[in-house]
Design brief:
The structure holds 2 protein chains of 2 kinds. Chain A is α+β, with helices and mostly antiparallel strands. Helices cover 30% and strands 23% of the residues of chain A. The longest helix of chain B has 14 residues. The mean pLDDT of chain B is 97. Classes of the chains: A alpha+beta, B alpha+beta.
Chain lengths: 715, 152
């Protein structure tokens, strides 16, 4: 960690300007610092007259109040609260004295300013702890110097430094003396048993702003002189713009200008409604240059690929062909999923102000650094000229990794020579692409003498294949002959990551298959999973597999115990366990029969995510992941016809609603291991748990999402 | 274009817009009240829920000319210090994840509690079915509404 002396002046002013400049910028204030829950009234330190910079994460005020910069984009995963908690823990201050601010993009100060892959906490853990601990040690060293004492005789607690002889001072008094000094290189981090903030529930630092309608989100950002843009894009994938007539659009009240860029046309107006009306008044002619794909084509070509072996399988253990040739029985099942939009409640949007000497970008983005690079390339500007301030995001789920809207806003502002707020209508948001691609999996196993002797997984996917090291996931290691083939099929639909990429559907396919396989082999579904994991432990293959069998068994046993799996009687329970994003999850869904139909009543969930930073927020992520996972497995449907999405709004695209959300009961494996993420890993097992419970209740196996097309469920 | 006078959160505002402009965009782009959110534009997601003469309505589907003399309350006007019984309950249950839909959820819940001081689970499910949350915070929303009902 560098200290402030090494920051370049341009970067320092960049940061400060980005934080304080411009109306409506998002500044997160820890309103909870005003809360007085405990019996004794806790006094919050006054707002400082002067702040002192320490490192990229910390400013300390002369009163001892602390500002912690939150480096990663906040997308609803609550890292704007939980990441600063880690810094505050090692700094050893009271959480009530902490103010949290969203840091802008700063590639010199921060690494990995990304929201994605459930990696913020896991990858930030060491850095954040050290950032707090180093400043704490510097403050202690400074106090010791003042006292002409040994730093090792000093202790800290809630921002107070105490010497063993009874002398005390505090961070506020030491801040001015310590600021600017070199930070210690090596520091001792706390023993987890001494944690006071980590492991304690803290409410969302943006809570009051959210509950009172403050301008926290990208769509809320305003700037003097700003115009609103609505963009007409090719209505079908593979189309180009031939000609357009904007005469009617320009007559719409409030429309200021119409600008063509590439194959798109932007209507600029004095408010969003006028821009949208102007867009509707545009007349455009399009040429279908590439194939107009449709859902029937997608289904056929996916299935066609499932019968092919790839030239380069992703992993091979043993001799799969021989095992199938020797088998008593071969079982083969195919699982299919449709394209899906992300359906973030806040539609895509971005603010851009491109002027001669700078490019200012403000908005909801999971990958600010990538967008800085793209805008730099597009406009031929130095990266130093391009600032990006991340706002709170109204959902992302992968869609806001892609930044097409950031680049569009920059291009429109550059051409219009005005500050521009670009907003996608919901119809734009659902039809303009970047979908989770449709996919299909074939799982084929060989059975010999009542044992699984070979497992062959074939993936067919559009524009991608499962990430490494997913081919080494379970049941890799548990079966002597194992093979994974992946096929990436090109599509002109734009596609991308969607909450828990690949795992969001593969978990269902794999775990519904094992439920069925256990039934065929006459084994209990939970016992069979444990039996396979024990095999992986006892006879590991030469090449490592990608999970810790003991942790996996740990969550499986915990979920089985808490759900009453072994005493289920007539209850219809469905089991599913999946490891993704470094976190182990097992879920048991309970389905009840009602009015000649079924209801998903409850989900029991066991999680091993290492140390839990913020239990309240962790539970929220887990509940949300399960409900979101059930919703999309049950209802998520999408259709492409003649190259265009036929479903363009929530009147046709069904998201889960309150009535269909089951009760969720969560149990954590107690752990002091380094923390892993929770934004994604509880979603993948939800579909499998529900499918297996629905089988228990109805006797019908499910192979295709959305389930609602296959089976009747109330909600 | 015409001049309309609308009463929002107890204050009269004059706006000069087309009569077909939905109240949502008047609030957001002309009055700077951005707590009311755009989600779908077709009254299907509930993010834009406000009160008109105390009744919950989707502001994306009501034009300024249809509004007439109805008095509008938005999330900004629900309480003076974020201390409405629902806002307090939302804090207690740490309801939001991304937070985008929550203003609409709270405005719907506030209208529910005006009609029904002691709603059952079924009453809550039925009343809140027009409000979508992709983050899946429904369990907490329901708990918070029950807590708020108790604290009325």
């Amino acid at each position: 960690m560098t200290n402030q002396n090494t920051y370049s002046d341009s970067r320092r002013s960049f940061l400060k300007n980005s934080i304080v400049g411009g109306a409506g910028l998002v500044i997160g204030i820890n309103y909870m610092s005003c809360k007085t829950d405990s019996a004794t009234v806790e006094i919050i330190k006054d707002m400082p007259n002067q702040w002192f910079d320490f490192d990229a994460f910390l400013k300390i005020g002369d009163t001892g109040r602390v500002t912690i910069m939150s480096q990663n984009p906040e997308i609803g995963q609550n890292i704007k609260t939980s990441m600063p908690m880690i810094v505050a823990e090692e700094l050893d201050v009271a959480w009530r004295d902490v103010i949290v601010e969203q840091a802008p993009l700063n590639t010199e100060w921060y690494t990995r300013q990304v929201a994605g892959g459930s990696q913020s906490i896991r990858q930030g853990w060491e850095t954040l702890r050290n950032a707090g601990a180093k400043v704490r040690q510097l403050l202690v060293n400074t106090a010791a110097e003042q006292w002409e004492a040994e730093a090792s005789d000093c202790t800290t607690s809630e921002g107070v430094i105490s010497h063993s002889d009874g002398r005390t001072t505090d961070y506020g008094q030491m801040a001015a003396l310590a600021a600017g000094k070199e930070l210690p290189e090596e520091v001792t981090l706390k023993d987890p048993k001494d944690f006071k903030i980590i492991g304690q529930s803290q409410t969302n630092v943006d809570m009051d702003g959210i509950l009172t309608g403050k301008p926290l989100f990208g769509i809320d950002y305003k700037r003097d002189g700003m115009v609103y843009a609505s963009v007409m894009r090719p209505p079908s994938f593979g189309q180009t713009l031939v000609a357009y007539d904007d005469s009617a659009a320009k007559k719409v009240n409030g429309v200021i200008d119409v600008i063509k860029f590439g194959d798109k046309i932007a209507v600029l107006a004095k408010d969003n409604w006028s821009a949208m009306k102007g867009k509707k008044a545009l007349i455009a002619e399009w040429n279908q240059k590439e194939k107009a794909e449709d859902s029937a084509y997608h289904t056929d070509i996916l299935k066609e690929h499932l019968d092919r072996k790839s030239e380069k399988p992703r992993r091979v253990d043993g001799d799969v062909d021989k095992a199938f040739a020797d088998a008593d029985q071969v079982i083969e099942r195919i699982y299919e999923a449709p394209f899906l939009p992300h359906a973030c409640l806040e539609p895509m949007n971005f603010f851009a102000d491109v002027t001669e000497d700078k490019v200012e970008l403000v908005g909801p983005i999971q990958t600010p650094q990538w967008q800085q690079n793209r805008v730099s390339d597009l406009l031929g500007r130095d990266k130093e000229q391009i600032s990006i301030q991340m706002t709170r995001m109204g959902g992302g789920f992968g869609r806001r990794l892609y930044g097409d809207f950031t680049v569009e806003a920059a291009e429109i502002s550059s051409l219009a020579k005005r500050p521009v707020s670009l907003l996608f209508t919901r119809e734009d948001d659902m039809t303009a692409g970047t979908y989770r691609p449709a996919s299909a999996y074939k799982i084929k196993v060989a059975i010999k003498d009542g044992e699984m002797t070979a497992y062959h997984l074939t993936e067919a996917f559009f524009n991608g294949m499962m990430f490494d090291p997913m081919p080494s996931n379970f049941p890799c290691g548990a079966v002597p002959n194992y093979r994974v083939d992946c096929h990436s099929i090109e599509s002109n639909l734009t596609t991308g990551a969607w909450r828990a990429p690949y795992a969001n559907f593969l978990a269902f396919a794999e775990q519904a298959f094992f439920d069925e396989l256990a039934e065929i082999l006459g084994k209990d579904a939970v016992d069979y999973r444990i039996e396979l994991l024990e095999k992986a432990k006892a006879n590991p293959p030469e090449e490592e597999y990608n999970y810790d069998a003991d942790k996996f068994i740990g969550v499986i046993k915990l979920a089985a115990e808490k759900s009453g799996w072994y005493n289920k009687g007539n209850k219809n329970l469905g089991f599913c366990a999946y490891y993704s994003h470094n976190t182990y999850v097992a879920e048991v869904a309970e389905v009840v029969k009602k009015d000649n139909s079924t209801v998903i009543d409850k989900v029991y969930c066991a999680v091993d995510c290492g140390l839990v930073i913020n239990p309240l927020a962790a539970l929220n992520q887990i509940e949300g992941g399960i409900i979101d996972g059930i919703g999309h497995a049950m209802y998520g449907d999408f259709e492409i016809k003649n190259g265009r999405a036929t479903i363009d709004n929530f009147n046709h695209y069904r998201l889960i609603k309150m009535a269909a959300a089951p009760e969720v009961e969560v149990h954590f494996v107690k752990s002091n291991n380094d923390p892993t993420g929770l934004g994604e890993p509880t979603l993948p097992p939800a579909g499998g748990a529900v499918a297996n419970a629905l089988f228990s209740a109805t006797g019908k196996r499910l192979y295709k999402q959305p389930f609602i097309k296959e089976i009747d469920v109330l909600g | 274009m015409a001049e309309y006078t609308i009463n929002v959160n107890g204050q009269d505002h004059k706006v000069n817009v087309d009569g077909d402009m939905p109240l949502l965009w008047v609030l957001r782009d002309h009055l700077g009240l951005v707590g009311t959110k755009y989600g779908c534009g077709v009254a299907q997601c509930g993010a834009c829920t406000v009160h008109a003469d105390g009744e919950a309505m989707r502001s994306c589907a009501m034009t300024i000319s249809q509004l007439g003399n109805k008095k509008v309350t938005t999330i900004e006007g629900l309480s003076d210090n974020a201390d409405h019984v629902l806002q307090e309950a939302w804090k207690e249950h740490d309801v939001p994840q991304c937070g985008y839909c929550q203003a609409g959820q709270i405005m719907s819940a506030a209208a529910l509690l005006e009609e029904n001081k002691n709603p059952s689970d079924q009453d809550i499910d039925d009343y809140m079915q027009g409000n979508i949350c992709r983050c899946g915070t429904y369990l907490r929303i329901k708990k918070a509404i029950k807590t708020a009902a108790k604290n009325l």
